[in-house]
Specification:
- With 477 residues, this protein is an alpha+beta fold.
- The protein folds into three domains: 260 residues, Bira Bifunctional Protein, Domain 2 (BirA Bifunctional Protein, domain 2), CATH 3.30.930; 95 residues, Anticodon-binding domain (Rossmann fold, 3-Layer(aba) Sandwich); 69 residues, Translation Initiation Factor IF3 (2-Layer Sandwich), CATH 3.30.110.
- 35% of the residues lie in helices and 28% in strands.
- The chain is built from 14 helices and 25 strands.
- Strand 18 and strand 19 form a beta hairpin.
């Protein structure tokens, strides 16, 4: 195999994924097992994700704050289900300043406990509600099997935590934030997702109800891409988050939490990438347009660079990069930017200058079909329209791939055979025992019970009992 070429996805998807991340300089392995260093190009994608989400959070009334990295161990012991769910993943500090600590401190795996403690101090009256806070942070979960972006010991995310006066308000908040994640995934990242509820077996530790957005990767595995949890009064009672209602009666709050992490960078890579490397959605790409000037002589250089600078001015509202490296051939540059997934390449040579035009090449459509010559006049509108079309095309291709690999088997034998090559959408009776048997026998987990279920009653795919809902089952990351 040519060492300079990426592995093909169909031959070794895992190796393709790891290599494309490192060759495109998104991230690298850290000296601590299971940790990663996010390189500038990868961090720029995360910054664009942050920007898109942060605007949506603020548009829905949320504000940002910061809470401590270190949490007293006793806080985790207050909510029984929560500590049971997280105890295998906790990283614990027992020594500080050279001395043994009176109480061990947990490096946050999530912040419900510390935020619950603070909300109990801040919330006194119904007039203090709702509290709508988000934080951008790093967290640590002691994962045994790690993979860059998808599952690392330390990762970056946002976690929203809210407190409400009623159960209805908390449920509205939980669903609203699921809708925010869905809108972001589809309309910014071009990742088609299915919003739905988690089963009790798969829900967040300490939640009453967990919601999720699930996406299909190009190896047909599912990736949980964002979650929103209705915590009911579990954490409010554990941390004594109470308020005086209008009748001067003491009531417990209803709380929620919701989060999306750098795992979503992995979702983008595995949803859109191809055998040449990354294919980045235009609205998140660090570089939306790369311009490659092509010339042989100083005279050609002057005219080509003048035209290049004119094009840059016309594209002032976009993230544009000029690749003027003289030690690299144009062919090398084409391949390099294809690997990095830049949505649109513009080539400007002497003949283009003569025609007052540029040659464009779309990353989502390889070869001649993706190339076109465009006049420089009015280029800004044309390029913006092309970038929007690239987004739409990526979304359509990913949606078709998911639909082509989603099956509705007639019986459990067919379910068992199909789940190795895609998702199965089947009736489920709601019994945890059936769900666990399916997982044990097929290695497929119940990914979500979709919210939109306009279906007749049926029979559970496993036990044959009456079922009122269908669920997606799949192998998953």
């Amino acid at each position: 195999m040519n060492k300079n070429k990426l592995p093909k996805q169909e031959e070794n998807f895992s190796d393709w994924y790891n290599q494309v991340i490192q060759r495109a300089e998104l991230a690298d392995y850290a000296p601590v097992r299971g940790c990663m260093v996010v390189r500038p190009y990868g961090w720029a994608i995360w910054e664009n994700i942050q920007s898109a989400l942060d605007k949506r959070f603020k548009d829905t009334g949320h504000v940002n704050a910061a809470f401590p990295l270190l949490i007293p161990m006793s806080f985790f012991e207050k909510e029984k289900e929560h500590v049971e769910g997280f105890s295998p993943e906790l990283a614990v500090v027992t020594i500080g300043g050279g001395e043994k600590l009176d109480e061990p401190l947990v490096i946050r795996p999530t912040s419900e406990t510390i935020i619950g403690h603070m909300y109990a101090k801040w919330i006194k009256s119904y007039r203090d509600l709702p509290v709508l806070i988000n934080q951008w942070a790093n967290v640590v979960r002691w994962e045994m099997r790690t993979r860059l972006f998808l599952r690392t010991l330390e990762f970056y995310w946002q976690e929203g935590h809210t407190a409400h006066a009623t159960a209805e308000e908390a449920e509205i908040e939980t669903r609203q934030m699921l809708d925010v994640y869905t809108d972001f995934a589809v309309n910014v990242a071009a990742v088609p997702v299915i919003p739905g509820t988690k089963s009790d077996n798969e829900k967040f530790a300490g939640a009453v109800q967990s919601y999720t957005i699930e996406a299909m990767m190009k190896d047909t595995k599912a990736l949980q891409s964002g979650t929103s949890h209705n915590l009911g009064q579990n954490f409010a009672k554990a941390f004594d988050i109470q308020y005086l209602d209008p009748n001067n009666q003491l009531q417990y709050c209803w709380t929620t939490s919701w989060g999306l992490s750098t795992r979503f960078v992995g979702a983008i890579i595995m949803t859109h990438g191809d055998d040449q490397g990354l294919v980045l959605p235009p609205r998140l790409a660090p570089v939306q347009v790369v311009i490659i000037p092509i010339f042989r002589s100083e005279d050609e250089k002057e005219s080509v660079m003048n035209a290049t600078n004119e094009v840059v001015k016309k594209l002032s509202g976009l993230r544009v990069k000029i690749d003027d490296r003289t030690e690299m051939t144009p062919g090398f540059k084409f391949n390099d930017w294809e690997l990095r997934g830049v949505p649109l390449r513009i080539e400007i040579g002497p003949k283009d200058v003569e025609k007052n035009a540029v040659m464009t090449a779309r990353r989502d459509i390889p070869g001649r079909e993706g190339k076109s010559s465009l006049p420089i006049d009015g280029l800004n509108h044309q390029i913006s329209a092309i970038l929007d079309d690239i987004h739409d095309n990526l979304l359509a291709k990913a949606s078709k791939f998911r639909d082509d690999h989603t099956y509705d088997p007639k019986d459990y034998d067919e379910f068992h055979s199909l789940v190795n090559s895609g998702w199965v959408y089947s009736y489920w009776c709601g019994d945890k025992a059936c769900e666990l048997k399916i997982k044990e026998e097929t290695k497929a987990t119940l990914r979500c019970i979709p919210l939109d279920q306009n279906i007749p009653d049926g029979k559970c795919i496993y036990c044959g009992k009456d079922a009122k809902q269908k669920a997606y089952f799949s192998r998953a990351y």
